[in-house]
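Structure, all two chains, one model.
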Amino acid sequence: SQQGEEDPQALSIQEGENATMNCSYKTSINNLQWYRQNSGRGLVHLILIRSNEREKHSGRLRVTLDTSKKSSSLLITASRAADTASYFCAGNQAGTALIFGKGTTLSVSS
Amino acid sequence: DGGITQSPKYLFRKEGQNVTLSCEQNLNHDAMYWYRQDPGQGLRLIYYSQIVNDFQKGDIAEGYSVSREKKESFPLTVTSAQKNPTAFYLCASSMVRGGGQETQYFGPGTRLLVL
């Protein structure tokens, strides 16, 4: 019952480059959320985009949502070494719990 | 200081033993969740609760049990029936609006190891 599937599984870039991660989901959603996890730690919420929104920004983060394609993307601009982490998307349906994908592991080298 | 706490940070289980992981939140959130994470994998939902004295099974509930006697607390018991319990366990909480979950706030996790 996976409601979020990230692509690619792993991404390696240089500092200053942009990082784009994609997420696909299976059923209609109320909102889609992106989270970040540093190794061995809990997840931290990054951004929530509702089903009636198409794009949202937060600092260096830009999230898009295409409900017709059941997909979302997370763009991190001007990446830093501190952005190295795993990134997860999760779709939310009414009446059910959030279901997470397997994540994209981002490595940013200086 | 508002937040969600989990204890202990590390837990060792002997074969055949039941162990309980603690999760407490003071965010006044209605919903609480337990996830299991295996190395290099995503989160899999074990149990969740949207209201006191009520909870629902997630995808991998077998071998686990929970209780929700207080809004602030959602302990998870890993029973002897769970044959492969070694994993990182994450607890989370959220508000519930319009039947849907809002942002989830996560605890720091408990790493369970089998002796």
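Chain A touches chain B at residues 1, 30-31, 33, 35, 40-45, 48, 88, 90, 92-95, 97-103 (CB under 8 Å).
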